[in-house]
What we know:
Elements: H1 5-15, E1 17-21, E2 24-31, H2 35-41, H3 60-71, E3 80-84, H4 90-97, E4 102-107, H5 110-122, E5 128-131, E6 144-148, H6 154-169, E7 173-178, E8 189-198, H7 201-204, E9 208-216
Parallel strand pairs: 3-4, 3-6, 4-5, 6-7
Antiparallel strand pairs: 1-2, 7-9, 8-9
Amino acid sequence: xxxxxxxxxxxxxxxxxxxxxxxxxxxxxxxxxxxxxxxxxxxxxxxxxxxxxxxxxxxxxxxxxxxxxxxxxxxxxxxxxxxxxxxxxxxxxxxxxxxxxxxxxxxxxxxxxxxxxxxxxxxxxxxxxxxxxxxxxxxxxxxxxxxxxxxxxxxxxxxxxxxxxxxxxxxxxxxxxxxxxxxxxxxxxxxxxxxxxxxxxxxxxxxxxxxxxxxxx
Length: 217
């Protein structure tokens, strides 16, 4: 796969279909219809120990967090928002729809960055994008930091948690969506809401994931 934005854009369009998000049907995303086929196709770009491409699916944590933001727009309204490890951009789009002053979606994957732009356009909102690994740095001027389903491994959880705690100490409000994966340090968070979120069974092994929205204490 070429590293140009246009190629990533074309690749994403070719292998996804724009459809409503199951738990957030007012938003639409470019989503893969057949998850494992896309996984096999992208093996040259991803490693076998990695999950399938994040950008092609509406993961449970992101769906729950996006639902919460849309139902509680005051969380982001008029504020500068950072969506960390944005994937498809679902949470970023929810923040933009809810009246955030600005939204920056950041992901290490260049395909995800291209897909966020496509999805923002499909939903008629403005979302800035950036390909970067911020986890050893800080959240800049963000007033709200959002992270959906970012605690999928022990190593990732350690890096994400350290980043979020630095953002919190700098004054940002930090909210995360997590579908009861085993790595989140719940003692450092307080529960805001919980949902039963429909998910692709082929990816999760179940049809519904209980998902919690947490705020960093």
